[in-house]
Amino acid sequence: MNLFNKEKDLILRILNFVLIVVLLISITVLFNGFVNLLVKEPRLTEEQYETKNCVKLEDTNCENNYNMYIEDLSNNDIRYKKQILTSFLITITVTLQLILLNKKK
Known about the structure:
Layout lengths: L9 H29 L7 H12 L4 H40 L4
């Protein structure tokens, strides 16, 4: 499959280039999602969180803030799974478009 053949119209060559760029971006986002899902952020204990965030600000709602921090960390896994699924579907779609667009007739 020759994507940038001189015999192809300029529009097809530009479209192939754009599809390849989108494909590379979606593959990069896909691998980034896998890395973020596998290598998790270290979770602070309540004491560590308090010394890092609450003592400086003299915050009285430190326990509430810590609970929101823990909830946010657990929501990250859901976000990364959605990112992986979305980028996987985009990768499949763009690959099929490239194949169909450049299929010999």
